[in-house]
Design a protein that fits this description.
Length: about 200
């Protein structure tokens, strides 16, 4: 384990996101992947009147508590995408992805990334950060080519794109922290881990 990490055991990541695990490992935080199994739609329904950022944070808290283990720090994460008052979810099919891209084309949407830390069944920290992304006007031939290039990855990310990959070609401008765009508000998380004594100062 990293010499910066002071806990006896790795952080538990309550997510199957490979990019979140890589971000943590690259930042010197060893992560044990243990995906949560919550009913996300039920959590979203309970938070229906909340802001997209609060929904992302609420989902993250639910995931962290679902995997909470005695003495271990558990990180839950989630992300929402909103265009005005409309919230998007992961596309269910290639055609669903195409429809989402058509709605986002030429517009600015907001990604809200929530994170929460739990220990011993209690949330010890929760936060959300936002980024604004402006998609360029997308032609139908480009969308077809993009969907071919992205493949099944279209179905694994809210909005139908992964910014760290070929999805970067969809955008004209972004405002916000790179890690937030990828689904993890890393810098406030690292500061909290230092405050908790899990990371060296």
């Amino acid at each position: 384990m990293s010499g910066l990490w002071l806990e006896r055991e790795p952080l538990i990541l309550a997510s199957k996101s490979a990019i979140r695990a890589m971000i943590l490992e690259d930042a010197g935080v060893p992560a044990e992947i243990r995906p949560a199994a919550i009913d996300e739609r039920a959590v979203e329904a309970r938070l229906a009147s909340s802001s997209p950022a609060d929904v992302a944070a609420g989902l993250a808290r639910s995931k962290a508590l679902d995997i909470s283990a005695p003495g271990r720090l558990v990180l839950g994460c989630d992300q929402t995408l909103s265009l005005g008052q409309v919230r998007f979810t992961k596309p269910r099919s290639r055609e669903d992805g195409r429809a989402q891209l058509a709605r986002l084309s030429g517009k600015t949407h907001v990604l809200s990334s929530g994170a929460a830390l739990a220990r011993d069944g209690t949330i010890v920290w929760s936060a959300a950060a936002e980024a604004r992304l402006t998609m360029r006007e997308l032609s139908e031939p480009f969308v077809d080519a993009y969907l071919d290039a992205a493949g099944e990855a279209v179905l694994t990310s809210v909005g139908g794109y992964q910014f760290e990959g070929v999805g970067a070609q969809l955008f004209a401008e972004v405002e916000g922290d790179f890690f937030t765009i990828l689904g993890l508000p890393l810098l406030p998380l690292l500061e909290t881990l230092r405050d908790l004594g899990a990371l060296a100062r």
